[in-house]
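Quick entry between incubations.
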Amino acid sequence: MKKLETDIAIVGAGPAGLSAAIHAAKSGARVTLIDENRLPGGQLFKQIHKFFGSKEHLAGIRGFDIGTQLLKEVEALGVDVMLGTLAFGVFGANSLGLVTDQRSYELTAKRIILAAGGQENYLAFAGSTLPGVMGAGAAQTIINISRVRPGKKAVMVGSGNVGLIVAYQLMQAGVEVAALIEAAPHIGGYGVHAAKISRAGVPIITSHTILSANGKDSLESVTITGVDCAFQPIAGTERQIECDTLCLAVGLNPMTELAWMAGCKFEYVALFGGHVPLHDENMKTSVDAFYVAGDICGVEEASTAMEEGHLAGIAAAESLGFIEKEKASRMKAEAREKLNMLRTGYFGQKRADFKKHMLESFACVCKENRT
Amino acid sequence: MSLLQCGYVSKEELVKCPGFPSEERMAKGAVAVIECVQEIPCNPCEYACPQKAVVVGDNITNLPVLREDLCIGCGLCIACCPGLAIFVVNKAYSETEATVEFPYEYNNIPGVGETAEAVDRKGNVVCRAKVLSVRNPPSNDHTSVIKIAIPKEYADDVRGIKRRLD
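Done. Structure below.
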């Protein structure tokens, strides 16, 4: 197995990984950015909507334009970007096993930032394997990256921001959206996203779930049912909706495999999508060489992922002496301030509280380790 | 019923919303109607306004406040709102008609002079609309702003047109 070396290795070239790479490379560190996909950008290049946020912080810019901007910077800084490369394991204290083009490598890095992102949750029901049933993320890739319509008429399951946004984007791609259903009694995502699709005539049906996907060779209809406050189907409320596409937007979970392999301490945080590696306020995990950023340590948004990436990139570079302490703490304070700002309000405050709780858990875990 | 229950803003929520102009201001002519009722971290509208008629402030989770006396109804804020939640309504357009300007990001954009079906916040068709203008300068970044004329009595309800399928 061929051996490679770098100062800072980053797994995942999404918003968190790209942002980490930019700050690490700016400091003068040798940076290797690894992504299993053919194209960098993570989910950014399929985000064709304008982002929320503060004006000085990319708000009002469409996701794919932000991706292009970050990528340009990464390239200009001479970051070694390894695409189509899978990081399949952690070896020793600070090495990654990589495979690309059917060849494997061992990459030893002084610091490793895991920014692997999240993956979609699935829902099991009768007919859920029929062609035409897919994750909302998959549908988004099909329309916005491949520019193909997955079908003529879709039903969306889940009213979080992914469900609402992808429903909107399906219509932009010329697909009819027959309904959006949500098991909870209220909408999960931003109201403005819901208002957009309501205006387009899409009924948002709360307190309903999917019973079955029906069809002979591919999806022809779905059967939905009303649910009570314990999410149990209410007999007699079943109805059928004709559609050839069913999209599931039922949350994401962090892709934590490498962090487990590295031996990072974890905690289960339902709000963040499952087990998440604990980290300190520098995004460093309980294992010395390993840092985390983005959805891997709590499913949030691209904007928070970018700031966590900044933070991890700065802290990793600082720990290797590439950024002097004073400058680093100034830069880190700025990133933290932006993170705090993004985690405010009706939707953000809960995330802020849990992030704070995670920092406290991290402190406890480290104390236990010492004693 | 609220936005989080049914997916569109109710009249009760709008009245309480600091971006919603008063009836007196509406009667005077074109004015921005900012239907932003949830505290989310976002403030491009504040920067879009050359009149400084939209205020969010340092805490960017604040709801945008419309200073209706300063607003001239130019509509520059419409395409800047990532949530597509800003409209310009002119109830003084004519004796019988009002105009509504709204953001539009679908294909098959109607031409000026064409007739379209005007829809309310639920997507229900409520009346016919005449397309007066379609603006999409580069600064809008592909968000068209369409201005329609509708019978005056629907000015508080109409917030878009029915999407035409391919």
